[in-house]
Design a protein that fits this description.
Blueprint: H1 16-25, E1 30-31, H2 38-45, E2 69-73, H3 81-90, E3 96-100, H4 102-106, E4 127-129, H5 136-151, H6 157-166, H7 175-178, H8 184-200
Parallel strand pairs: 1-2, 2-3, 3-4
Helix pairs in contact: 1-5, 2-5
Domain NADH:ubiquinone oxidoreductase-like 20kDa subunit: 37-146
GO biological process, one term: electron transport coupled proton transport
Binding site for [4Fe-4S] cluster: 37-38, 103, 132
């Protein structure tokens, strides 16, 4: 794997907190809680194009007792709020909540008596994802930022108080910058992959925009 060349004398040192958080980050199972159109984008992330299984999250659990992450995809009505809270209470600790889309984050365009104006009125939210609906890439970016936040979580109350006293916070670096190709060869490979994907989707590799259909003729208003 190439890891042996980077380890001095084959020894790797780590503390318990980092090891526990690493295991939690790499085996985070989402709960299926799609409520509206944002759920379609969440399903797309589980497909082969985006492949969320590379982060150890390919199992969308239908049982809350086997889930770690609740992705609230869509608007939450007052009738659904008690159900959401009951499912959240059945999830084991530690657990996290990701509000996907503007409807789950703040109610969105549905400013009325039937829709909860933000899922944080019902459950504590760890990560907010804007958009209507957000792209699958945005959901992956939010998940990676949540992973970074999990890696910095204290393991007990004493460590949490010490971290609060020091004012330590996890830097939210965009994934496009954090995981950008480091050398020219990797950048060229990434560009070829992006161009092939845009060509497959019917877009222009130069600009990423959709091409106009060929053979189209203009029709004047008088005919």
């Amino acid at each position: 794997m190439g890891l042996e060349a980077k380890l001095p004398n084959g020894i790797l040192l780590a503390n318990v907190e980092k090891l526990v958080n690493w295991t939690r980050k790499t085996s985070m199972w989402p709960a299926t809680f799609g409520l509206a159109c944002c759920a379609i984008e969440m399903m797309t992330v589980g497909g082969s194009r985006y492949d969320i299984s590379r982060f150890g999250m390919e199992r969308f659990s239908a049982t809350p007792r086997q889930a770690d992450l609740m992705i609230v995809a869509g608007r939450v009505t007052n009738k659904m709020a008690p159900v959401l809270r009951q499912i959240y209470d059945q999830m084991p600790e530690p657990r996290w909540v990701l509000a996907m889309g503007v409807c789950a984050s703040s109610g969105g365009m549905f400013n009325n008596y039937a829709v909860v104006q933000g899922v944080d009125h019902v459950v504590p939210v760890d990560m907010y994802l804007p958009g209507c609906p957000p792209r699958p890439e945005m959901l992956l970016d939010a998940i990676l930022k949540l992973h970074a936040k999990v890696m910095d979580e204290p393991i007990n109350a004493k460590r949490a108080a010490l971290q609060l006293e020091r004012g330590e916070r996890t830097p939210m670096i965009p994934s496009s910058e954090k995981y950008a190709p480091k050398n020219a060869m990797q950048r060229r490979r990434a560009k070829r992959q992006q161009d092939a994907q845009r060509k497959e989707m019917g877009g222009d590799p130069k600009f990423g925009a959709l091409k106009e259909p060929s053979g189209r003729k203009e029709i004047s208003a008088g005919r």
